[in-house]
Amino acid sequence: MSTIQAAQKCTVTLDAGNVRRTMNQWKSAFATLVAELSSPDYNMGIQILSEEAWLEIHPIVGADGAAIPATPRLPVRPGPLPGNASNAQIAQHSQLTKIADTALEKSIILKAGLIESIGPDIASETAMFGRGHLDVATHIIYKHVVDNYGIMDADDILWFLTDLDRWDLDKPFNSNVARMRNDFAELASLNMFGSEVERVAALVKATRHVPSISGIIHQYMINHPALATQTFATLAAYIHQQLPVATAQQARANAAEAKNVARDNTLATLTAELAAARAEIAAFSATAKDPKKTPPGPRWARRTEPTGKPSAADKAKWTPGRIYCWKHGFQGHTGSICTEIASEPQWKKDAVNPGPLNGQYGSRINE
Known about the structure:
It contains 14 helices and no strands.
């Protein structure tokens, strides 16, 4: 592969799935390749002219009906120089030879770039069995692609209309605008979206769900009430100019809204917790008034002592004069604290429901 061939190639590749939707982009990219391979000595665009267009410029039949030799599309190398050729003839011969050789080399590169850019599926439609595209001219391949895939069908039109109706929030504003311009160009061949009114309406519809842009468009319509003054370019430029300010305002509004939502959620949580606390207090109050009910609270905090009036056997243990330990009850009490408690008043000995030391009631657990 030569240096020229390595540097020149078409930037758009077609395939059977998107060939109609990207046809104009491909034509533009391939035209760029043609221009890059052309030179002042030879226009490479000759290689993609249709046979009809070429014969119109270079007919093979004269006005009198006589046959005219066909004009080659590529420059032809000059014949051999005579033995007594002058320096001027030698220089001219060298120049013409260089032009012919360069044109031939670049035409091969153009053909290879064309076959590569249309993809293997479409390229196979013009290939010859056993020899591929060796005997197929560049203009024949190019005409086959344009004639067979240059007109969009209903599905392609629907695809473009759907593409115009969307707006990518994760992409910059100018990227969305450029995509819409490409869609307009693709549909222009069908006389769709040719007017500024249609294009402005498409931009308004695509951004209808973007709050920051919707407000800018509303202000633009106020500034340009006449339809004749509204254009896609001026509207896009106005949005791009005002968008940073509108985005900042929208960000502040979103932050305030998020703060209000957080405050409301916190208030709702505190209200629920307060209601639950009030319910627990009410339940505890009801239990305190009715000793038959089990007090609320965790299981470990609930009373496990026997409740109700003591039996005759219980009272028999609490005979007057029997040493009572406020901590241990009537048995298992030892130590200095138990001795001190022995001098406690008689009513503590005869307590109906004894409790632990420093408590209000004595404990009957160790009785």
